[in-house]
Specification:
- It is a single chain.
- The protein folds into four domains: 12-101; 107-170, no CATH class; 189-242; 245-337, no CATH class.
- It is built from eleven helices and eight strands.
- It has helices spanning 12-32, 42-67, 71-88, 95-98, 103-117, 119-132, 136-145, 149-165, 189-214, 219-242, 328-337, and strands spanning 179-181, 245-247, 251-256, 260-265, 269-274, 285-287, 298-309, 315-323.
- Strand 7 and strand 8 (315-323) form a beta hairpin.
- Helix 1 (12-32) packs antiparallel against helix 2 (42-67), helix 8 crosses helix 10 and helix 9 (189-214) packs antiparallel against helix 10 (219-242).
- The longest helix has 26 residues, at 42-67.
- The chain is elongated.
């Protein structure tokens, strides 16, 4: 079975998007440099509309839908379009953009408001989940997911902040009856994350200084994006350490940081074998080791396709998974012991 992570082979939609986006940007740049641009208030509004509405719509219909990209890709494109509009429009004609500076805060407030209006459902779902599994965070996750797409968005952001705020003294999340298998001790994961964080800090400083000189309106957004990237990286490192793969007599719980998670009955796993090289593209194997900065060393085969759950409601389906563990042979032995 072919994994849903298989790279797109149709370049037509992507080429169409590139051509139309280039044409649109060329027209907007031509309009901006016309002598009458500063004399007609409707022109800056029209340019802002094209960049903030038409361009994201082109991305949605020509790239996001054909390639089945997650909703977060559209959010990223919207942020890039906002930065592009701030760069193209002269400072004197950026009135349409100033109204959007509070947009992220307004969206967050709207999401929190929606959560408040559904407080009864949240409480009921939380209590039901807590009755099944008396742990606060898993119950809170179930309650947030009951809100649908908004809940998935809030849950993803809260998860990042939760793990980023935990100290290194926090203990791994491991039930008593389960055997834990780590995925960060032998691969140099911690050193790689520390290096990436240092590079990100240097890059953020340089970009911020350049943006302050060339485009002051864009500088705060770039700094915010880099700060979020740093928080995400730290949270991911903590989640990898605190959320090991768990194998119990009844269940296999595969966790890759806070990004990917799979919980299936132990009997669903029909084979576990060592991998000595990464599977070839198009082989039907779903690779889950890239976020660990390591090559996969373990191939898991299930009786039927399983669904791996990601942030923002993302789903990936495959029958064979390629993962990385510090001690793959111990996992293979333990999986056979419980068979």
């Amino acid at each position: 079975m072919t994994s849903s992570l298989r790279p797109p082979v149709r370049l037509g939609p992507l080429l169409w998007f590139g051509a139309l986006a280039s044409l649109l940007l060329g027209i907007e740049n031509l309009v901006i440099h016309q002598p009458v641009f500063s004399q007609r208030p409707a022109l800056p509004v029209g340019v802002a509309f094209d960049l903030l509405v038409c361009l994201p719509l082109l991305f949605y219909f020509l790239v996001m839908r054909p390639y089945r990209l997650p909703l977060t890709s559209l959010v990223a494109v919207l942020g890039a379009c906002l930065g592009l509009a701030s760069w193209l429009l002269p400072a004197a004609q950026q009135a349409p953009l100033r109204a959007l500076r509070l947009l992220p805060a307004l969206l967050e407030a709207a999401a929190l408001g929606l959560a408040a209006t559904r407080a009864r459902r949240l409480v009921h779902t939380y209590r039901a989940a807590y009755a099944r599994e008396p742990h606060v965070w898993p119950s809170a996750q179930a309650a947030m997911r009951s809100l649908g797409a908004v809940g998935e968005l809030l849950l993803a952001e809260l998860t990042v902040l939760r793990y980023a705020g935990l100290g290194w003294w926090a203990r791994p999340e491991r039930p008593i009856r389960a055997t834990a298998f780590s995925s960060y001790r032998e691969s140099g994961f911690v050193a790689l994350v520390a290096t990436a964080a240092g590079v990100l800090v240097v890059e953020a400083t340089c970009v911020h200084l350049l943006a302050q000189h060339w485009c002051p309106a864009l500088a705060p957004w770039l700094l915010l994006a880099d700060a979020y990237g740093l928080v995400f990286l730290l949270g991911h490192a903590q989640a990898v350490r605190l959320r090991p793969v768990l194998l119990s007599p009844d269940e296999l719980r595969l966790r890759i940081g806070f990004v990917w998670e799979l919980a299936v009955p132990r009997t669903a796993l029909v084979a576990a074998e060592a991998l000595h090289e990464a599977p070839a593209a198009g082989s039907g194997v779903l690779g889950l080791s890239k976020l660990l900065f390591a090559s996969p060393n373990l191939l898991l085969t299930f009786a039927k396709p399983v669904v791996v759950v990601g942030p923002y409601g993302l789903r990936r389906t495959a029958r064979r998974l390629a993962v990385y563990l510090d001690q793959p042979q111990q996992f293979i032995a333990a999986s056979r012991l419980h068979s």
